[in-house]
Design goal:
The chain contains 13 helices and five strands. The protein is of the alpha/beta class.
């Protein structure tokens, strides 16, 4: 069918979400991910020729998968059954593998290995691995996460995300937090350099030369960081850091500060300082939701690119290294791009809570 006679391709909200997952999830087969990208581009109203150019395939390929999706929706993007040896693993056996993985653990262990589960269900470890991959199951992985019990969770998410996506006029927005107890660790042996085929190596033991607390304020518009050192992170130290921000921000601008719920941020010295500086407004993240504070993303860069592989013979050497890295960052600063709206974040939290609220949990 020519480009000028295309059948409109309309996608439902659920279909868009599933297709985006297929297109971005690393565990998805490359062919399925490519088809999902093609359909998403077609759903944006583009012609077959335009989609082919954007995705990097022929127009014939785009036409084929557009027609398959129109005829059979999401099912049409999956590979058709091919002739070959009959299946040796029944649907019942696949269901058993999935149910045992999700609802049981082996005796004396915290999670299944593919070999342990293969012995129980009577199939090969390779087959267990294929079933896990097909259903997106990864028993060996675990992530740290805690659902916020904050009664003002929705209001705070809307408040903070609103500052990121639609900052107020004539105002500066800063994400502020402390990285406490950064250790000055010196390896007990020299770091061995990287060689072809051999990564850099360092000793597992170390000598600690003290710790320092780092206060950081990330300007969400420019990406530049204001930093200060402290031997602790008490209310007076936070107040002094706010004073430092005040002196570095252009007069006449309102200042919005995103911070967490640490008691030091709400102590009387801070309240008194805020009363004396009315252009400052504090915005608190929900409890157990530091992921919404953009400065945490900057701390991750600091850890990965400066601290993780460093060896510091003294506290002064640690401070010098940190100051040098922060100067380099500010010379080429760029803001982090926030893309999720408050409604998208809240919807995702609700869907996750719904999924884990079944009888098995």
């Amino acid at each position: 069918m020519g480009d000028n006679r295309l059948v409109p391709l309309e996608l439902t909200k659920d279909e868009v979400e599933i297709l985006r997952g297929w297109a971005t999830r690393r565990s998805t087969a490359q062919g399925l991910a490519l088809r999902a990208k093609i359909v998403l581009e077609c759903g944006a109203g583009r012609s077959n020729t335009a989609v082919a150019a954007r995705v990097g395939v022929s127009r014939t390929t785009v036409t084929k998968w557009r027609a398959r999706f129109l005829g059979r929706r999401l099912e049409g993007l999956c590979d058709d059954p091919r002739p070959g040896v009959p299946r040796s693993i029944t649907d019942a056996k696949v269901e058993e593998v999935v149910v045992r993985t999700l609802e049981e653990v082996p005796e004396g262990c915290t999670h299944w290995s593919k070999r342990d589960l293969a012995k129980v269900v009577g199939i090969s470890p390779t087959s267990v691995h294929r079933i896990w991959r097909a259903f997106g199951l990864q028993p060996h992985r675990v992530e740290e996460f805690k659902i916020s019990p904050d009664p003002l969770l929705i209001d705070k998410i809307r408040d903070v995300v609103g500052l990121y996506l639609a900052p107020p006029a004539k105002a500066a927005v800063f994400c502020v937090d402390e990285k406490p107890q950064i250790q000055a660790l010196e390896r007990t042996a020299p770091v061995l350099p990287m060689l072809p085929g051999t990564p850099e190596r360092r000793s597992f033991d170390y000598v600690r030369h003290g710790t320092v607390d780092l206060f950081a304020a990330l300007n969400t518009a420019t990406g530049r960081v204001i930093a200060a050192w402290s031997a602790r992170h008490a209310a007076e130290d936070f107040r002094d850091f706010l004073d430092m921000i005040d002196h570095q921000v252009e007069p006449g601008l309102a200042v919005h500060v995103v911070c967490d719920n640490l008691s030091a941020h709400k102590a009387p010295p801070v309240h008194q300082w805020l009363l004396a500086h009315p252009r400052f407004t504090l915005h608190f993240t929900p409890t157990y939701s530091s992921w919404i504070n953009q400065v945490e993303r900057w701390f991750a860069e600091l850890e990965r690119r400066c601290l993780q592989r460093g060896s510091f013979c003294s506290l002064d050497a640690l401070k010098t290294a940190l100051e040098g890295w922060i100067d380099v960052w500010n010379d080429t600063a760029h803001p982090f791009k926030w893309t999720k709206t408050a409604d998208q974040i809240i919807d995702r939290i609700c869907r996750y809570c719904t999924r884990i609220s079944g009888p098995a949990h």
